[in-house]
Amino acid sequence: MAAKNLDSLPSSFCKLKFLETLIVSGCFRPEEVPVDLAGLQISGNLPENRTATGGSTSQVSLFGLCSLRELDLSDCHLSDGVIPSDFWRLSSLERLNLSGNDFTVIPEGIAQLSKLSFLQLGYCQRLLGIPNLPSTVQEVDAHVCSSLRPSSNFRDATTILWRIQNLAPNNEFCILLPGSGIPDWFGDRKMGCSVAIEKLPPEWHQVNFLGFAVCFVFASEHEIPEHTPVVSCKINDFRFSYAFSCGRGENEFVESDHLWLAYQPRARVENFHPYDWTQIKASFEVFGIGTRNKVKECAISLIYADR
Fold first, then answer.
1. Residue 93 and residue 67: Cα distance in Å, rounded?
2. Is 22 helix (H, G, I), strand (E, B) or coil?
């Protein structure tokens, strides 16, 4: 049963301890944005699948939503200072979508989301930096975040390498960013869509080998996405891919260079007998953003424990 014309939700909304998904995407016009997200304004549906979708009139708190696993606050015109400190106490949250908002910084408190695995920031065009994230985070989508500073944590490739080696060496990770500069610590690189390590060093698959990092730069020429874009990488016989959302269907994303960096831990490729490899070839593809997408440059690096 769904109630589509609710003026408000009762204050007891925060007691929905079994609510797992909350979608508030696009609910607020600029003049309606609540001063404090702890007093979030919501109205809308409460269907039986434990999802709330809404408009804006009643003040409720998110803090009591202890089972919330997915939260979508995209395109809500959220600005700096709106997200309160207790927001980061959503201990079950795994997926957070903050795309299309107006803040310049993300509070450091995001590091307290100990189960967060997926963070969407696409089209946050005022965002200057991405803070340290929990070690559980596996995907960061920051396409069209055109104001990101090169020195910000996740725009600084050295920080990403440190994270892989010291914080989460056993977790896969990928990040999508605007830009065209492949990090210097990628030793093997090539123009085009494939790159190879022609001769692997002796005993390359030794005990301190952690995994593979790959990176490539791509763009399309004046084409609007056809469907959900997917970036794909093949390392010898091992293939992996990630999908990302282009959000509003505008063409500003596909007209600019973007960089995709990914890490795969050794455990993910063990079934492909990497210890038998004498060389490694990595190839890259982008699907769903038109026929003229182009991989401009790519790179691969063997990652070892930082001694």
1. 8
2. strand
Tokens read off for 167 = 């914080």
Residue 210 to residue 170: CA distance in whole angstroms: 8
Last residue of a domain, one of 112, 138, 155: 155
Write down the residue that tokens 């890490």 correspond to.
263
Same domain? For 21 and 133 the reply is: yes
- How many Å apart are CA 54 and CA 57, to the nearest integer? 9
Q: 110 - beta bridge partners? A: none
What is the CATH number for 141?
3.80.10.10
State which residues form the domain around 284.
183-307
Q: How far apart are CA 254 and CA 293, in angstroms?
A: 8
Helix and strand numbers, DSSP H then E, in the chain: 2, 16
Residues 65 and 190 placed together within one structural domain of the fold: no
Tens of pLDDT, residues 218-274: 876 555 555 678 889 999 999 999 887 665 544 444 567 889 999 999 999 999 999
The helix/strand/coil state of 76 is coil
d(CA 253, CA 121): 13
Cα separation, 69 vs 90, in Å, equals 8
The pLDDT of residue 172 is above 90: yes
Residue 168, both tokens: 């989460």
Does residue 150 form part of some domain? yes
